[in-house]
Amino acid sequence: MILTSLVLTSMGALGVQDGQPKDDWTVHAKKVYTSTGVVHENAVVVVTDGKITAVTPGVEAPRDALSVAVVTAGMVDAGARVNMGLESVEQSREVTPSVDARYGVDPFDTRWARLASSGVTTTFNRPLDQNCIGGLGVVLKTAGGPLLHERMLEGTPMMCGAIGSQPSQRNSPAFGRPDSFYNRRPTTRMGVEWEWRQAFFEAGQAPSEGAGAEVDLLQDVLAGKIGTFVQAWTTQDIRTAVYLKEEMMREGFGAMRIVIDCGAEAWKEPDMLVRTETAVVLPPFPDQGRTGDQALMPMDVAAQLRDAGIPFALSAHDGGDAQGRLAVQAGFAMRGGLTREEALRAVTLTPAELLGIEARVGSVEVGKDADLVLWNGEPFEITSKPVGVLVDGRLVVDPR
Amino acid sequence: MLSLSFLAAAALAPSVPAAGAPTVPADAFAIRARVVHVGDGTSLENAVVVVRDGKVASVGGQAPDGVTLIEVDGHLAPGFIGLRESVGARGENAETTRKITPTAELVRAFDPEHPDWQHLVEQGITAVAITPSSSRIAGGVAPLVSPATGEVLARRALVCLGLSSRSLENDVEPTSYAGLFAHLEQAFAEAAADSPLALARAGRMPVLMEAVSNAEVANAAYFAQEMGLKGALLGAPRAWEVVDIVRESGLAVVFEPMAPGAPAHVTRSALALEKAQVPFAFTADVAGRGPAAMRMTAAAMQRAGVAPATVLAAMTRNAAEIAGVAATHGTIAAGKAADLVVWSGPPTDLTSRVQHVFAGGQHVLDATSDAGATR
């Protein structure tokens, strides 16, 4: 496959040595939140060749260290949605499992640099939500080398799709002679459900070999080898996703691994999510009233999911404005009842686990990628902000 | 075919034809111009170009005895070559039901009698590639044609690929970049031997790959490298931001005309490519932007600091190389087609006017006489 070149964040003169960006650093912080529940005081984080090679608490700052108040892991936005809009989704059909989101992201998008400077170092990007089953998502760092594959993380492959009103938005019946491929099902939520069930029933009944690349992919989804990343804002849509999984299990087709994206109303019927081991990525908190698909998302949604024992991640979607940034979402979740460390986990380690990339990113631990956020105060406070950001050991935002 | 009158050379210029030659070939003549722009970056002062049988016979020598010598007080330059034009295709350059028709021959859409061709000739354009609509992904093979004589100069010159969002717009599969590359890879994989895509992959036919945004340019560059394609990117207005990617791909760039007052990206890109020694050329786009668009763009680039010789090469030699016709077109050299334009001043100067146009050795435009165009 072709890999788009990526030259995005202007590295500028940030620690460039001999033409190569520097990826060895010593970072000292009064507090290092590791995301694993451990907090180190007066700790040094040593970065060598882009990896974390030592975390040593209880020491003074070495003279040449980057010295800040707080260090956390780089944030992971599982719902970043930095895609190219309609050109990231194959509109000619509703079920396009072989579409690869790598072709739907623009490496020159200015949002990458903005995400990186706001402390988001890893993103999950999916085809736009206009298809029932849109295709495979891609995990990308927000800064890094000139080629896409240098910034890509191999995690659990994720088949992305949508349940709800979005997939049927453009479709319409033909009045008279059909004049577009949009003269098709679905035009309703019922039709959306029908498309999903038909695709998986056909894949489940197809022979395991030789039924084509798209059926092979859907069979891997049924077997749980590929995760299912389903946009479902409202209770009825979350039910549709969960019931689909249970129906496929009853049919003997396998156990899908479902992550509900945009699960604003996941708090309403948590039992079905617990029952089906379903995780949730929350959409950004709405300014007021309802959010996407007229879903109701209260301030304490994250705390409710925590209490129910449902794994959840926070998301800022494309982080288009200051209020929408992921750190601010974590602050909202704290206001809704999460502790700081719970909120931190929901923007670092939990999304990394949902995406199967926790061996690389999501916490400040030896051996992981040196994706670090350097804060001027306690994370997610309204007066705190990222003053320094490292991605793979390279300084994207310089705290000095 | 067109009926073209060939004006008596003596009527063109004040000089007295050399007399007394017993056997003067009817289609042999010589032009002496104040400056001859060869098109390869060099120019000759007060030089003679001899034309015989529709081709340049010699440059910089003497006019042989018995050959009519036309003296012009102007600049002689190769005819310009535009690498995208559809004015004579009458809208027949897009097979709208399908986006991948790589074996379609655009020459079948070429109407040599279309009246608008005259606008190109009047701007000194003597060859254009007729290309499929931008809305196609593999819309077919572009020919190189002469707007002046109606002659098909090269029937299968360029394999045209549309890798930009323009090819994703209408409701025909594919509508996504993922679908675009999946279909295109399949089309290349399934291409029959000696079909255009197979020839392109073997490096035996140049490609013209439309790509506008930098992401599209990068994708096109890597696709070309992966498939072993040679040729040019079409578009790339912000090439200055990805000049390394473009250079490493080995592709040239064909710029679309700048709109008046447009942001400086295209001129900036031309400067960056000139510095990186990446050749570039232009589209004609008379249908969309008017006949003077190519010269206006060239002038804007010079205002930004691109050397006049570079923009002249862009409109002549580089375009011929991109279209794979450098052996016969693009410069004034012995053995090449006598596609020659006499300008009142330097050909890249916006104040210069076209005085005469010769296409394949035929005198197709005399803008100095009241009769005007001879076509």
Could you describe the 3D structure shown?
The complex is a heterodimer of chains A (400) and B (375). Chain A is 23% helix and 22% strand. Chain A contains 10 helices and 19 strands. Chain A has 400 residues and is of the alpha/beta class. Chain B is α/β, with parallel strands linked by helices. Helix content of chain B is 23%, strand content 26%. Chain B has an 8-stranded mixed β-sheet with strand order 5-6-7-8-9-10-11-12. Chain B has a 7-stranded mixed β-sheet with strand order 3-2-1-4-13-14-15, with no helix packed on it. In chain B, strand 1 and strand 2 form a beta hairpin. In chain B, helix 6 packs across helix 8 and helix 8 packs antiparallel against helix 9. The longest helix of chain B has 14 residues. The N terminus of chain B is likely disordered. At the A-B interface, loops of A face helix 2 and helix 4 of B.
First-to-last CA distance of chain B = 12 Å
- Strand order across the largest sheet of chain B: 5-6-7-8-9-10-11-12
Oligomeric state as shown: heterodimer
Low-confidence stretches of chain B: 1-25
Estimated share of beta-strand residues of chain B: 25-35%
Cα shape of chain B: globular
Secondary-structure element string of chain A:
EEEEEEEHEEEHEEHHEHEHEHEHHHEEE
Mean pLDDT of chain B: 89
> Strand pairing plus helix content of chain B: what structural class?
alpha/beta
How many DSSP E strands of chain B?
15
| Count of individual beta strands of chain A | 19
Question: Which SSEs are present, and which pair or pack?
Answer:
The complex is a heterodimer of chains A (400) and B (375).
Chain A: E1 16-17, E2 20-21, E3 25-33, E4 39-48, E5 51-56, E6 66-73, E7 75-77, H1 110-117, E8 120-125, E9 133-136, E10 138-141, H2 148-151, E11 152-153, E12 158-162, H3 189-205, H4 213-222, E13 227-231, H5 235-250, E14 258-261, H6 270-275, E15 279-281, H7 301-308, E16 312-313, H8 326-335, H9 340-346, H10 349-355, E17 372-375, E18 386-391, E19 394-397
Parallel strand pairs in A: 3-6, 7-8, 12-13, 13-14, 14-15, 15-16
Antiparallel strand pairs in A: 1-2, 3-4, 4-5, 6-17, 8-10, 9-12, 10-11, 17-18, 18-19
Helix pairs in contact in A: 3-4, 3-5, 8-9
Chain B: E1 29-37, E2 43-52, E3 55-59, E4 68-78, E5 80-85, H1 117-122, E6 125-130, E7 140-145, E8 152-162, H2 177-190, H3 196-201, E9 207-211, H4 214-227, E10 231-235, H5 243-249, E11 252-255, H6 265-276, E12 280-282, H7 286-289, H8 293-303, H9 308-315, H10 317-322, E13 340-343, E14 354-359, E15 362-366
Parallel strand pairs in B: 1-4, 5-6, 8-9, 9-10, 10-11, 11-12
Antiparallel strand pairs in B: 1-2, 2-3, 4-13, 6-7, 7-8, 13-14, 14-15
